[in-house]
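Standup notes
- HV: blocked on the assembly model, inputs below
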Amino acid sequence: MELVSRLSISIQKTHFIVVILAIGGFLVVPLSAQDKDYTEGEKLFVLKVKPLLKKKCVSCHNDEDLKGDLVLTSREGMILGGESSDEVLIPGDGENSLMYVATTWTLENFEMPPKEADKMTEQQSWLIRDWINTGAPWPSEEDEVIIKEKYAEGVIVQTSGGLDDDWTYRRYEEKNLWAYQPVADPSVPTKSKRGHPVDAFIDDKLYDIGLNPAQLADRRTLIRRATFDLIGLPPTSEEVNAFLRDRSSDEKAFAKVVDRLLEDHRYGEQWGRHWLDVVRYADSAGFSNDYERPSAWRYRDYVIRSFNQDKPFNQFIVEQVAGDEADPSNPDALIATGFLRMGPWEHTGMSVARITRQQFLDDVTDSVGQVFLSHPLQCARCHDHRFDPIPTKDYYRIQAVFASTHFADREVPFQDNETLVGLEEKVVMEKRLGYFEDMRNRLNEKSREALKAWCEKNGYEYGTRMELLDRGVPEDDLPRNIGLTLEEIGIRKVGAKNVNRGEFEMKKFEPYVLSVYSGLEPEKPQRSGSMLPMPAAMVKGEAGQTHILTGGDPFGYGEEVSPGVLSALPESSDTLQKNEYNSIPESVEGRRLAFAKWLASAKNTLVPRSMVNRIWHYHFGQGIVDTPNNFGAMGGKPSHPELLDFLASRFIESSWSVKEMHRLIITSKAYRRSTEYKHRDRLAEKDPNGISYAVFKPRRLSAEELRDSMLYVSGELSETMGGLPAMPEINQDVATQPRQVMGSFASSYEPARTPEGRNRRSVYVKKIRGLRNPFLEVFNQPSPDESCEARQASNVTPQAFSLFNGEDTLYRSIGTAIDLLEKNKSRKRVVEDLFMRAYGRKPDRTDVRLSLEHWEKMEERHGTLEFPVREFVKEVQRTAIEEMSGEEFSFTEVLFGFDDYVADPGMADVEIETRALAELCLVVFNSNEFVYVY
Amino acid sequence: MNKKLKQDILRNMASAKQLNRRDIIYSMGASLGSVALASILPSRLSGSSAQTGPLALKEPHYAPKAKNVIFLMMEGGPSHIDTFDPKPHLNQIHLQKFTRGGENKSAMESGARYYVESPWKASQVGQSGAWMTEKWVHLADVADDICFYRGCQAESVNHPTALFHMNTGNRFGGDPAMGSWVTYGLGSENQDLPGFIVLPEVSYPQGGSPNWGSGFLPAHYQGTPLRPQGSPILDLQPPPGVTPEHQRENLNLLSRFNHDHLKEHPWQDDLQARISNYELAFRMQMQVPGILDINQEEEKTKELYGIGTDETEVFGRKLLLARRLIEKGVRFIQVYSGGWDSHDFLERAHGSRITSIDKPMAGLIKDLKARGMFDETLIIWCGEFGRSPDNGIRDGGTTYGRDHNPLAMPMWLAGGGVAGGTTVGATDEIGAEAVDVVHPIRDVHVTLLHLLGLDDNRLTYFSGGRFKQLSQFGGNVIPELLS
């Protein structure tokens, strides 16, 4: 689409027409030729007051609802008034008309509309008052049409059409449509004559608001910032020193650092993690059973791999949305489709199949919207979107793209680029499985004997229960669970359920991928907790018809729709002009591929902007648009729209290279600025919302960065990439916390047997929806149920408990102390090394003195302290109330992982000197300087 | 902090668009020294501590009828038919068979079915003549203080979705829990304890901790479970071997390092907030165990709650602790009782569950009344749905049970603002479906907020592109439940 001309004609002081002539997305609104004169009051009513009443008042005060006996759909109704007043409308006297007064919320018990979020602004209230003051005219419907055509503000957006004409032809404020405009390629401003294009845009604005930028950060600060940013870990002292000693210019020396970091494999671990936040990665399915997803980890590694490879982002999109259709012989493309199955989902005997299917469809539709289009689409599930040009029809057209998508756990051999670490867990899982098999089999045997006896007594030949039923033994005569006490019934069920669960979870050692196929609806609903094979033969035929579901009700079949795309985007309306870009085939196969190509096209105005904004957001802690998942009317507006478009067009030009985007952004002065600013008052005054980039904003480490950094400082962090979900130690109370799953308990959390298996980077830590890692959770790792566009960095007391009292910090402190003493000759050197590792700087004299004093003081104290040798819980007694009988029963769960567990050294295992030094390390890990990046 | 910046921050907060800005507010409060200097664990509001910070007291929208909530959640779905809504007609059709099916039914509800009578007789109790089955021995004493509600309907037939719905208003989870909304709306009287505390069973309910999560609300409002086994709050105590004096020395050095660091970045409020947090944590560590120690209570109080008797020990302790926490100024307590999912062996299963809560609940009401706290506390009792009048074909004999039923469920309310001594609404002849004063769960949520002086339509938070609220899209107060 191209904006041919934009014509603003000022007609009156307050009313002007914005006419947008457009080819494609926007409807052409011709000037009406009629010349009847209308009064200000009439125009005010039609253009402002009536829509306001519709939005704020008439949903309650209408002919049917009659809240307060008041009807506001006609002038007569207003004059008639309601139960509390007949002075609702006094034509000519706005100030005393209740319908104005109520909107001002100044009269107690007459605050209207009652919902605070709906409360009118002062300006909106005044519109009502002003209209009443002009005598409250109410033009005829014909006049209304003409007035709208002649004088209405805003633009109509052509879409596939709303549920009613009012929505279809409603007008949007132009400022809210920015994201649907084609990505411009703005020229770089030259006002400030700076070298870097990003700075040119930023400095241009700084110049306009009269603010000088902060000085550039010193090299020491900068390398810590960039290293955490790009690889999620602190720089080593060698890296810091090399950068400090580099004699090239600041720009060149820093560019070298950036190049090195972008080539570091740990880059993919850090930036892949950001993407996993957005797609809600988890290793389990949530809800009642919270089954593990045996092969989800292969998708996680695919994401990390893709970032490291700098896979073109448009290819990354196509693989995730339609890899199976685009390139079925490419293992990575199949693994990528795990994206479509990331949401929580479950179907059991207690679920209604239509509802769980719809749950998937709703989830994937909204998820594609948030992740790629920066538009939460769920708002349009039940009604046309309240604020954005997204009709319900589009929601279901996009949903129809996935109507032929079904789950499949495909067999895809492990590739050379995949790591298979974590296999040691298999031994433990086998032991556990055997244990529960015994538990079940023993009681099955007992029941079988009892059944034999029963058959003998009642004159039947022995057979299993099913066989006896088949032979016509009346069900009412045949006792169930024969020979078992109520307690044994409970225990047998625990055994059986855990065997099923264990067998399913063992699939993670086999080469399956969490994937999908395009085909017809399977005859039986796909159930959770079992592997879902590809259909034996792909049945050809029609995919199920998609309907608009009225009010979002899974059984409320409305109008039929065909698969399609978001019609408000340029060239995307197939009703206006059908072409290859905007049309999705009706066939069973190929729907997702066509949709993915539309997403990944340079013509799509949302997708490239969305991604460059996310990249910017992670670099600066805030987006150019501050709501990375929402570019609609209720989202933020770009603080630097031209910069956003500049980046988006460079992104497309550089073949959607994410690494090129990093280079472009991170080498700017805006990124390299100090967090310090001399004139804070002036900064606050000129840039109250903190969007000028005059100064860099410090941030708290994320949960993963915090854990990884402690491991890195202690020298314990495993370098291994990828593989089965890693299981670090977690708080033992949480690890053995009973978790109810349908009819049983999930097994305890058992950490990996060896330090190598536990001390993996946090991105690899197993993410169970119903059993979050308590350390990561308390430091704001988001819940994997909703797409996370931006992390919180809250400051709550449990964080102090976790970091100060928790075992994570304790063992990292001991590990650090051991390593420091091994590598350094003198105590002073130890302290220097600790500061370098943790803070990236040398300690000053006070630091050294305080540290050494503390070490000594603690040494003295530790001389009198006894630390118990660490003991692990190897058996857990589970007591349950049998859901069927209400009887309490108990069984023992054995934690086989602790059979030959290699523990991290604890306080009892090390010398007093080491213990005392560990106390110092603990303090350092808790300190603000460690936890914040500047 | 300069005045302009403060105004700007406050303005940003009003727009409630960004969580990190809220955190700035918290740290601002903290930097005024209020959190750090608050007297140690005041049992009630003390001075400035309640005026700043995330749990600062806020004005309700209108005069509240109750200040605190004790929400008793019967996980698994208690039967209305066998508790407070008896159905004698089932005695006549007991074991009559029929079949059910259809696209909107789960496998559990479909196929051959038969009707099941209640194993217990029911009678009217108290002056008000409330109906109860004979299993309720103690609750009958306080029936006139209770409003029994028979009209609530859930929308989901499956545990985790129904439980999420009752707890958060959203069947799929991820939204803030009731207690989070209430603490967000009103703050809490005690700044040194969480405003929303959960007393779960040893095994967490289906769906896990998202049942008390804060969703899109800031993390300060999330429910804190007091774990019945192990440390009540995770990492509340230092590892074994570490003494408080020893820890105090570490804390002193930490404070020194942090203050040195603060000098270099004096404008960054987060740093001060974090320093204060450590002091608060240290105080909590010393004080919380005492608060949780119910042995400080008199013997006769413990007896009132059924403590000392096996069947009622567990729930009795929880309810007594709930009362202690309310006294300390905690705003919202949710107490779980599990094991109500009686598909079989109804008499045994529901029987033991009812006995386990009967005396403790009666004890709680009596105790609150004796202490003059009843009128300012709202008690709600319910599960995530009710149970069906029919069951799938299983064994027969003593194994009769009931399946899930979202269309009818038991519920009662008591305390501040509640129409005690009434029974509101009705279900049909067999208890299959609510037919009178029928309301969805969201109306119960709206009513709960209303009793606390909060208007659901005004208690909103901007997230994901719109103002969200507990009822999701608005609802109605159920006037019949109000005194």
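- HV (later): unblocked. Residues 1-33 of chain A have pLDDT under 50 and may be disordered. The first strand of chain A starts at residue 2 and ends at 10.
- Next: hand off to the docking folks.
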